[in-house]
Amino acid sequence: MAKMTVYHGGYTPVETPEIRIGRNTKDFGIGFYCTIIKEQAQRWARRYDTKIVLIYDVRLNQDLNIKEFREMTDEWLDFIISCRSGKVHDYDIVIGAMADDQIYNYISDYMDGTITREQFWVLAKFKYPTHQITFCTKEALKCLEYRGYEEVTL
Q: How far is CA 8 from the centre of its chain?
């Protein structure tokens, strides 16, 4: 597999990423989240006082259990609902679109029964493309090679 560059928005350099179990459930479950879209990582970094974008080279190991959602589908939606509900999956790496805050509000409405699945899809049109690649296991983290970081300016 070809090498690609991914970005992680944060507040401190992370040469050796770890998987930390937090309080919040995320789109693709527990893992180290990156993106191929530098501007998206910059938006992630803007949540912090010190704003940096970490840069990694990645060569995916095809022996790992990789799930890729090439587009937003019912399977993608159900996977996010499952992960955000705290259910654990057995993938090493998960790749796909991100449910940003607005999209997650629609997911919550769907989960609560306020809107139907069909209504969700009508509302769930992204204003800009999103992408995330989640490294969910220690083996997956071995695919990352730290290149450095850049400070994010407003």
A: 10
Burial class of residue 109 (count of CB atoms within 10 Å of its CB; 0-12, 13-18, 19+): middle
Q: Is the dihedral of CA 13, 16, 19, 25 positive or negative?
A: positive
* DSSP string computed for 65-107: -EEE-SS--HHHHHHHHHHHTT-----SEEEE----HHHHHHH
For the chain, percent of residues with pLDDT exceeding 90: 69
- pLDDT at 105 exceeding the cut of 90: no
- Nearest CA to 34 out of 15, 10, 50, 51 is that of 10
The CA distance from 136 to 13, in Å, is 20
User: Is the Cβ–Cβ distance between 134 and 64 less than 8 Å?
Assistant: no
- For 10, the token pair is 């944060």
Q: 106-110 long-range contacts, Cβ below 8 Å, gap at least 24?
A: 107/77, 107/80, 107/81, 110/77, 110/81
Distance of CA 150 to the CA centre of its chain: 20
**Per-residue pLDDT tens over the stretch 46-102:** 999 999 999 999 999 999 999 999 988 999 999 999 998 889 999 999 999 988 777
